[in-house]
Design a protein that fits this description.
Radius of gyration: 17 Å
Largest sheet: 5 strands, mixed
CATH superfamily: Ribonuclease H-like superfamily/Ribonuclease H
Number of strands: 5
Oligomer: single chain
Length: about 200
């Protein structure tokens, strides 16, 4: 099914999404994209439904075809200071702040958002699989975050972030048990498995 171009009927509609909310380590990233009217690309889809190769190819298309786009991040320390929901929404706001065009309406993947000053918005559950601009934002957020995790993997290779990207895989948790958390870990998250599961590690 082809993704929809517009939700609100307002021309400068921006799609927004984040990546990395459920990770134990690394920043949360958010992206926002405004496409020209009736933009269409047959391969564009929710980033979770695409391979890494497809995502990076589409990133080039998105960045060259959009009227405006921006990517922002919020680090683990800020996530710990507030909470991951607040951090995700604030990171979306930071991305919108960086746009070269001011959107007239914002559509956001999910069911939670804080109003952006003087711009209307709609939350759309599963929006990254419905609307082109949100799908594009999901791809940018995911690929820029993956680049970041690949880069810091060079400094902390024992956590295997080049594979798990900071998500709570068994190997990642085993490394935290063995080496302890580092500066990129979210201390407010449950980094260690519950006691009853420790035997599995």
């Amino acid at each position: 099914m082809a993704l929809l171009f517009n939700h609100s009927g307002i021309s400068l509609e921006a799609g927004c999404d984040e990546a990395g909310r459920g990770c134990l380590a690394g920043p949360v990233f958010a992206a926002v994209v405004i496409f020209p009217e009736n933009f269409y690309h047959s391969d564009l889809n929710d980033s979770k439904k695409l391979s890494a190769i497809q995502r990076y190819k589409l990133r080039e298309v998105i960045e060259s075809s959009s009227l405006a786009f921006a990517v922002a991040k919020m680090d683990a320390g800020e996530i710990d200071q507030y909470n991951i929901l607040w951090a995700s929404i604030r990171t979306m706001h930071k991305a919108i702040d960086q746009l070269s065009l001011r959107p007239q309406h914002i559509i956001v993947d999910g069911n939670k958002f804080l109003p952006y000053p003087q711009v209307s918005h709609d939350c759309i559950i599963g929006g990254d699989g419905l609307y082109a601009s949100i799908a594009a934002a999901s791809i940018l957020a995911k690929t820029y975050r993956d680049d970041f995790m690949q880069n810091i993997h060079q400094k902390y290779p024992h956590y295997q972030w080049e594979r798990n990207k900071g998500y709570p895989t068994k190997d990642h948790r085993k490394a935290i048990i063995e080496f302890g958390p580092c500066i990129y870990h979210r201390k407010s998250f449950r980094l260690y498995p519950p006691d009853e599961q420790l035997a599995l590690f």
